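hiii so um. not sure if this is the right channel but i have a protein structure encoded as tokens and i wanna go backwards to a sequence. like what aa goes where. can anyone help
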């Protein structure tokens, strides 16, 4: 292969693509497929069925993609996320190539026995499927029925080609030409962006331009997010403030909206525009932000599912505010008093309100800006009464106020701290909301069992050489 294409000509620049590899002899072609997608500018991660690893090792694809390969539907990533759920939520298209007869049948019937099927079941992004198998297997009515079912799901099927097959026979079953599969990926993303864009905006959202998420795992949820800094007046002209830009909180709001949530954004002083679609509550002081939070947490219980306090609330304010502009003098002494601890106060109101009303307690997330070390973060997690605390060292380059990046450690009440690398604030927002989604799911009431237990679907081994076998317990 030639080197990277001109970025201006690459059709998938900035796109996130998952490649699913199943147990076909054509699995070796996935290496070249990953390279072609990368040449088009895509960031590629790979999922494999256990049988696929018999044809090609994970090390090759991990080296090329620069991401761990997900081969186990039960495995967790290093950051604690569920692998196939992460793939479902983090990418903009999933392409399954090659897709065996066994995988087509499992997917058509929703049998999540491998990471690829599980990711496809969990995602809302386009799915492109390129079958590969013996000609007789592909023409069998069962296989054709499964292909038709996947088309009903909205999946794009890249039909296999005619040619020499692994069985030694000739027929329709060869994996489609790789450039044809790449073209289908490009078209699938373009169609998704076009359908999601406002009227007249599709031209500005062609492949190669940034796109918003198509996830819906927060649909029906009300998320309250505070962002920016508060300002505490000294006189009508001057104030005490901080360097917060609001970028982190607004990045969380954007991702929450993209994932289907209803968002209330309590804004202090910010340097970036809030996202369209959020309900904005403007505040300047800690007292005004306190009033906004109290309105959302009445005595009868909170009106939200998640509270994320990313605002940098001033810790102190002048005890008195001068009614007129203070004259310049040689010396000026300002007596300060502490402001209310809004996070701890709101957490307590939520606790009392939910106990009295019987409502499920919302997920509470706090932020802690530290300098020098994060030694105080574990105690803050406990003292504030929150589920998650996101701490960062604002003195570290690239991790302070006003930057577009952040290096955070996420503390939780039920797991060890998780230190993330330096990421964009949007990436931090996505990873944080992934954790929130998992916690929300854990708070859902258990569903009532059926009157009669459903029989487990029978799984039969695929007849194609090397195809994966269904794994018990998936």
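sure thing!! here u go:
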């Amino acid at each position: 292969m030639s080197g990277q294409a001109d970025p201006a000509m690459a059709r998938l620049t900035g796109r996130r693509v998952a490649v699913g590899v199943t147990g076909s002899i054509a699995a070796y072609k996935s290496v070249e497929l990953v390279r072609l997608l990368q040449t088009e500018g895509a960031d590629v991660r790979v999922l494999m069925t256990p049988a696929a690893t018999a044809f090609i090792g994970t090390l090759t694809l991990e080296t090329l993609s620069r991401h761990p390969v997900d081969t186990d539907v039960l495995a967790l990533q290093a950051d604690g996320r569920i692998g196939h759920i992460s793939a479902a939520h983090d990418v903009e298209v999933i392409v399954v190539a090659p897709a065996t007869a066994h995988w087509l049948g499992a997917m058509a019937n929703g049998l999540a026995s491998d990471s690829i099927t599980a990711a496809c079941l969990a995602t809302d992004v386009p799915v492109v499927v390129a079958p590969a198998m013996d000609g007789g297997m592909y023409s069998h009515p069962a296989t054709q029925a499964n292909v038709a079912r996947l088309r009903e799901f909205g999946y794009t099927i890249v039909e296999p080609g005619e040619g020499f097959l692994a069985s030694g026979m000739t027929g329709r079953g060869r994996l489609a030409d790789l450039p044809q599969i790449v073209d289908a990926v490009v078209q699938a993303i373009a169609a998704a962006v076009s359908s999601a864009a406002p009227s007249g905006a599709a031209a500005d959202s062609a492949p190669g331009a940034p796109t918003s998420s198509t996830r819906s795992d927060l649909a029906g949820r009300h998320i309250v997010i505070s962002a920016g800094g508060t300002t505490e007046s000294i006189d009508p002209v001057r104030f005490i403030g901080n360097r917060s830009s609001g970028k982190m909180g607004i990045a969380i709001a954007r991702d929450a909206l993209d994932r289907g949530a209803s968002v209330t954004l309590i804004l202090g002083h910010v340097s970036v525009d809030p996202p369209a679609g959020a309900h904005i509550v403007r505040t300047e002081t800690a007292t005004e932000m306190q009033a906004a939070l109290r309105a959302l947490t009445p005595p009868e219980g909170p009106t939200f599912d998640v509270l994320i306090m990313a605002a940098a609330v001033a810790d102190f304010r002048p005890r008195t505010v001068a009614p007129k502009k203070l004259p310049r003098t040689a010396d000026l002494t300002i007596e300060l008093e502490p402001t209310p601890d809004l996070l701890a106060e709101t957490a307590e109101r939520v606790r009392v309100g939910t106990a009295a009303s019987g409502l499920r307690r919302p997920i509470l997330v706090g932020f802690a800006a530290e300098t020098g070390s994060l030694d105080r973060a574990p105690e803050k997690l406990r003292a504030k009464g929150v589920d998650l605390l996101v701490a960062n060292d604002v003195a570290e380059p690239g991790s302070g106020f006003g930057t577009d990046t952040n290096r955070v450690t996420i503390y939780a009440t039920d797991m060890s701290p998780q230190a993330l690398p330096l990421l964009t604030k949007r990436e931090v927002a996505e990873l944080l909301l992934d954790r929130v989604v998992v916690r929300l799911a854990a708070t859902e009431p258990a569903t009532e069992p059926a009157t009669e237990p459903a029989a487990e679907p029978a799984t039969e081994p695929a007849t194609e050489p090397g195809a994966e076998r269904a794994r018990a317990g998936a």
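oh and The chain has two domains: 16-205, 222-325+332-443.
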